[in-house]
Amino acid sequence: MKLIVDSDGGIDDAVALWWLCGRSDVDVVAVTAVGGSVPVHDAGRNLRVILEAAGRPDIPVHVGLDPTGPAPPTRRPVLIHGHDGLGDLGPRVPVEPALTAPTGPEVIAREVSAGTSLLTLGPLTNVAAAVRSSAGTAKARLTLMGGSARAGGNARPGAEANIAHDPSAAAAVLAADWAAPPLMIGLDVTHTATLTDDELGLLRRRLTPAADFLDGPLAVYRRFGAGLCPPGQTPCHDLLAAMACVDPTLVTAEVLPVAVDTGGSAAWGQTVVDMRPLARRRSGGATLPDDGNAAADGSPVAVALDADVSRFRRLVRELFAGSHLLQIS
Predict the structure, then answer these.
(1) pTM higher than the cut 0.90
(2) Domain contains 224
(3) Does the residue 212 lie in any domain?
(4) pLDDT for the residue numbered 297
(5) Per-residue pLDDT tens over the stretch 47-72
(6) Which domain does 298 fall in, by range?
(7) Rounded to an integer, what distance in angstroms lies between the CA atom of residue 231 and that of residue 252?
(8) Phi and psi of 164, rounded to 5°?
């Protein structure tokens, strides 16, 4: 598949990109930087560092935008990603700088108009700008890491970080005319498909170039990034989104109406997922007459509600151990 990735250059973004770069069935045509875990120019630098380390310096990185829309108060996740976005483990200088022209939104608009699939791993600011400038989204499929149906929030009580950083952008993107309902990989599945000591123990052995690069950053990440998961489990949000983008059967998704709270309330930045159609489908009542309740707001989105956790972890172990896995097993 041809794929463009929009990323804010954090630690779980790095894991996702390493995994994608190792796939022979994925052609990453470009990566665009958006502000989120770090400001956009720092994200662009990190993405160049990641791609060069992963042996893919040929993939261009285009600098996009920092979130600009009204948003609820949030903090940069310095404890989770470090000040530099990759764990503050020492200077990392890319050989080539990220490109400032064409911009991230321009590249996204061009690629989705050509039918290239889009994976977003950060706030949706770049994509919203691309949507506003182009009517070509109907040819492309979108997978986004963000939001939550039933799991609450992380950056805010009800809001996941990527949505909370720019709720208006998220609302515009979900309302766009995509080739199929966007696949939303939110906290419902990223807080269950997690890394355990089995995977992280392999990582610490540094058996592959990916493990050698990611061991330090993930050690930083797991200290404070796992607080909302069960003990001994660490989320890797963007990695699951990348895997589900390539193979949607990794998750079980239901097409449901989704709206984004763009107001100033306590729910500002929340993805409001209407679960009533799912309840009706499961009860066999899809064809029942109008029950008198209000119709759904929002756009159709394929919301991931469950994940194949064992398959996710097997793919992670392959990334961290490679051909050594058979010897270890």
Answers:
(1) yes
(2) no
(3) no
(4) 82
(5) 999 999 999 999 999 999 999 889 99
(6) 2-193+233-309
(7) 24
(8) -65, -30
